[in-house]
Amino acid sequence: KQEVTQIPAALSVPEGENLVLNCSFTDSAIYNLQWFRQDPGKGLTSLLLIQSSQREQTSGRLNASLDKSSGRSTLYIAASQPGDSATYLCAVIKAAGNKLTFGGGTRVLVKP
Amino acid sequence: DAGVIQSPRHEVTEMGQEVTLRCKPISGHNSLFWYRQTMMRGLELLIYFNNNVPIDDSGMPEDRFSAKMPNASFSTLKIQPSEPRDSAVYFCASSFQQVYEKLFFGSGTQLSVL
Description:
heterodimer, A: 6-stranded mixed sheet, B: mainly beta, 7-stranded mixed sheet, 4-stranded antiparallel sheet, globular
């Protein structure tokens, strides 16, 4: 059974510092991995999607890397801003199925 | 497009009552997913549909839960009878493909069963 873990559960950084969020998964047979952002009281917004054949994806200040063999992904957010404060979740989908398995999320606070 | 639309945004009901949650997916998307989010269990997939057909309902917790998708633009999740432990945020999401590229979530329904 696929398990997805995100450590730490919460993170607080001063504005301007780079953010590094970690995601690990137990079964490397994945189809893709997605990073989502969730604001309080809102749904999830997909930030980046990395196919299993890719090693990284970039969008603006966001960069996500994927190391399938070690079962890890990292989301980097450069030059953090207070507006980046949210919960970030990673999720993986198995190669042979359609179920997205979510991690527990990392709650991020960027202090002005 | 307005995105995935869910209603109601909040629902407060008493134990034993029937609850119906509604979802309108993004036009053109052919896969629809119902998730439940709680502090204790995180996000759990309840059921998903592809081309209006239920594909996997193994996440539906009990027979009290049922979901329908009568057409490509509407789905319901029903709980009958509701119990306090059903209190959670219920999300609907849609995607373009069954093995989806990106998943688009609605804003959720906050359900409180007293």
